[in-house]
Amino acid sequence: MGLIPDPEATPAATLAAFLKAYIDGRVDLKPATRILRGQVIRDLNDFFGESREVQTISPGDADDFKQWLVGRKLAPTTVHKRLQVARSFFHAMRRRKLIAENPFDGVKSAATGIKDRQRFVTRAEIAQVLDACPDHHWRAIVALCRFGGLRCPSEVLSLRWQDVDWEAGRIVVASPKTENSGKASRTIPLFPELRTILDEAFDLAPPGAVFVVDERFRKSAMGPGGWMNANLRTHFSRIVTRAGLTPWPRLFHNLRASRETELVENYPLQVVTDWLGNT
């Protein structure tokens, strides 16, 4: 007779309300990740409307959302990532039984263009770059990326002198990117090419210095959303140009990737991925 609610009925949920509650409850997200998720939330709210009931969003609507992103002339990698995040939001709705199916299942966009941005940076080129660096801080940044395979800025600017074991020939690398997955740090060899640069930086470091690279770099790279490049890429591009070279597409990432390419020629793959902290 309609006097009591249907126990099988799914409670109505509006898009904006769910997304806000979901993000507020994700205490595991880093500030930078929250910013990225926030961009997708704005896109979803703009396209569907904040008061849209999530049960009414169909697979066809999800297809239209994808075309809306593409029509905004976003990079293919950006479209790929935003669809991936949107799919994860609706997966959380399905887990909570707010929707019967995930409308974004199968709605994907290839992250094209990655191969065009890959570039192996040779040792001859990096020697020119090191010669063009204005000081030992920049030489340490470049060497830690190219010869240590560290992520920049987070791992490079987090490295402390106490993490360098000169006698054992090892470096403990703190990894902010992977700490939530149980891999807060990893250990790499103190490679000969790296030791030369770090020896110079240690000799020139002021008494009581904690970090290998001057702490002013670290302070400028820590924003309210977590790690940011703080013009490191802009300055590095100038250094590469000063060295007589054309800046490659992914300035710091290609240094790390170039080191991995070298290492797998001489060491087992699983050893190299342990050193570099990737899969």
Please provide a written account of the structure.
The protein is mainly alpha-helical and 279 residues long. It is 50% helix and 6% strand. The chain has helices spanning 15-25, 31-48, 59-71, 76-95, 123-132, 136-146, 154-158, 192-204, 215-221, 232-242, 251-263, 269-276; strands at residues 164-165, 170-174, 185-189, 222-223, 226-227. The protein has a 3-stranded antiparallel beta sheet. A hairpin with a 4-residue loop joins strand 1 and strand 2 (170-174). Helix 1 (15-25) runs antiparallel to helix 2 (31-48), helix 2 (31-48) crosses helix 4 and helix 6 (136-146) runs antiparallel to helix 8 (192-204). The longest helix has 20 residues, at 76-95. It is elongated.
Summarize the structure.
It contains twelve helices and five strands. It has helices spanning 15-25, 31-48, 59-71, 76-95, 123-132, 136-146, 154-158, 192-204, 215-221, 232-242, 251-263, 269-276, and strands at residues 164-165, 170-174, 185-189, 222-223, 226-227. The termini are far apart.
Compile the SSE list and pairings:
Layout: H1 15-25, H2 31-48, H3 59-71, H4 76-95, H5 123-132, H6 136-146, H7 154-158, E1 164-165, E2 170-174, E3 185-189, H8 192-204, H9 215-221, E4 222-223, E5 226-227, H10 232-242, H11 251-263, H12 269-276
Antiparallel strand pairs: 1-2, 2-3, 4-5
Shape category: elongated
Distance between termini? 58 Å
What strand order characterises the main sheet? Answer: 1-2-3
Number of strands: 5
User: What's the helical proportion of residues?
Assistant: 40-55%
Main sheet makeup: 3 strands, antiparallel
Low-confidence stretches: none
Task: Return the structural class.
Answer: mainly alpha
Question: Mean pLDDT across all residues, rounded?
Answer: 89
Beta fraction of the residues? 5-15%
Q: What's the tally of helices?
A: 12
- The ordered H/E elements are HHHHHHHEEEHHEEHHH
> Nearest-angstrom radius of gyration?
23 Å
